[in-house]
Amino acid sequence: MNTPCIICVAITGSVPGKSNNPAVPITIEEQVESTHEAFEAGASIVHAHVRDDNGKPTSEPERFARLVEGVRQHCPGMIIQLSTGGRSGAGQERGGMLPLRPDMASLAVGSNNFPTRVYENPPELVDWLAAEMIHYNIKPEVEVFDLSHMHKAREMWLNGQIRGRPYVQFVMGVKNAMPADRDVFDYYVRSVQRLFGLDAPWCAAGIGAHQIELNEWAVACGGHARTGLEDNVRLDRQTLAPSNAALVERVVELCERYERTVATWQEARKILGLSAPV
To answer: Do strands 112-113 and 118-119 pair parallel, antiparallel, or not at all (unpaired)?
Structure first.
């Protein structure tokens, strides 16, 4: 519990729009401004998607490049994590932004059900994305939607497909996937420690109303926390979140309650084994 808590802010995602919450940042300018506010509030990682001119998800490298440039300029030192998620493109298009050499990128290592579709991550694509991340010296964040994904991450680590100790994030509360269940959560924490080492860093994310619940579980158990408008657009059932920063501030309050310091970007980079920005 002496380890500072890394707060990751997932600013936009592929699903929520202005109709869900006017605070969801869509344009690059809005995303940079929202990231800066969240950075000032205590976030040390930004998890980023981009949208096209119609607000639809895309993997366009040029848009990612403008976002990366803006975040590096306005949030010096912040860890930039780009999404290779499946809503933004198909096949290797999902990794088209990796030559930008972000600090991190998401890596889903297996498939699972989502509310209305199958989130497909075929083995050949997973292997290619992992190889690209090694080539460009990008640390993957392994997104775990199922127990098999954690065991697959261990296999890839032992095979040299993931360099350094894996950083695992388990995502709970997605309909048709892993429920937000405390017994399941506790088992996942034990599994991380058993598969990757007692001091292996891990993160947890909750979807919708489960966000604050997972934030508290993670902070209380010595893990790291993800928040942001990608996963949840409300403070409570009646109140829309006014910003990504407001959701970050909720995690900061939890850290204070559980007597954990909030990781600076320097501390976050040390915990994750990332070099200082050039």
So the answer is: antiparallel
The conformation of residue 5, written as its DSSP 8-state character, comes to B
pLDDT in tens, 210-250: 999 999 999 999 999 999 999 999 999 999 999 999 999 99
How far is Cα of residue 83 from the mean position of the Cα atoms in its chain?
A: 8
Residue 37, in any domain of the structure: yes
Q: Which domain holds residue 201?
A: 7-272
* Structure tokens belonging to residue 113: 């059900």
Q: Is 157 left (phi over 0), alpha (psi -120 to 50) or beta?
A: alpha
pLDDT tens track for 187-198 = 999 999 999 999
> What's the chain's length in residues?
278
CA distance 245 to 256: 16
Domain count across the chain: 1
State the CATH number of the domain containing residue 92.
3.20.20.70
* Cβ–Cβ < 8 Å for 79, 265: yes
Please count the CA atoms within 13 angstroms of the CA of 269 that sit on its side-chain side.
14
CA separation for the pair 30, 139 (Å, rounded): 26
Question: What is the tens place of the pLDDT at every residue in 73-104?
Answer: 999 999 999 999 978 778 999 999 999 999 99
pTM to 2 decimals? Answer: 0.97
Asked if residue 278 is part of any domain, the answer here is no
